[in-house]
Design brief:
The protein has helices spanning about 1-20, 20-35, 40-70, 85-105, 110-130, 135-150, 160-170, 175-199. It has about 200 residues and is mostly helical.
Length: about 200
């Protein structure tokens, strides 16, 4: 059993890193900005990278720095009790990014994306105080919902990576099946709903 489990563990780690929230939030804003700007390469980069900077790069830099200083175990912040501070920093950084988007006159869909991420973060922070909901699944689920709203039913093919992400988190022992399923629903229900209402 141990020999058979080793490849699963390795594959689960790769999937968990490739589809980590910080990675998804680097790519998703570009996809949304591409739609919002009518396919303008320049403005896709301007708005997409702005959202990625404040919602992914800066929060991840804060987490990595904290992990190196021993404030939490790894860049995944496995201990639920230690997740509040990184999540609050991510919330504050995303809020600053949203304010800059408003001032800069960003397209409505880009604003909707930023607001949807704020909404999902608020809900995740509230739940995480008592239960370790999967942030990997929440972000991936929200990404599937938003790309489907923008690009149509073919985007539902992204459900395959979403399932893979959930599987990886359970195999690695980071979450229960329930925590993964709830996370996968939080993104579409809260983030997707806000995106749909605003965009």
């Amino acid at each position: 059993m141990a020999i058979a489990a080793a490849p699963d563990q390795r594959l689960a780690r790769v999937v968990s890193e490739v589809f980590a929230p910080a990675v998804v939030v680097l790519v998703l804003p570009l996809a949304v900005a591409w739609s919002a700007t009518g396919g303008s390469p320049l403005w896709t980069l301007v708005w997409g990278l702005e959202v990625a900077l404040f919602s992914s790069v800066l929060p991840m830099a804060f987490i990595v720095r904290g992990a190196r200083r021993g404030r939490w175990d790894t860049h995944h912040v496995r201990d639920r009790e230690h997740r509040t501070v990184p999540l609050l920093f991510g919330l504050a950084s995303t809020l600053v990014g949203l304010l800059l988007l408003v001032v800069g006159g960003a397209p409505r869909q880009v604003l909707a994306l930023s607001l949807s991420m704020l909404a999902t973060l608020v809900v995740c922070i509230a739940i995480t105080r008592r239960w370790k909901v999967s942030l990997h699944s929440a972000v991936a689920g929200g990404a599937v919902a938003m790309t489907t709203l923008l690009y149509g039913p073919w985007s539902l093919l992204l459900l395959a990576p979403l399932v893979a992400v959930g599987w990886s988190r359970v195999v690695l022992g980071e979450h229960t099946v329930a925590q993964v399923v709830v996370g996968a629903l939080l993104g579409p229900v809260f983030g997707g709903a806000v995106f749909l209402l605003v965009a």
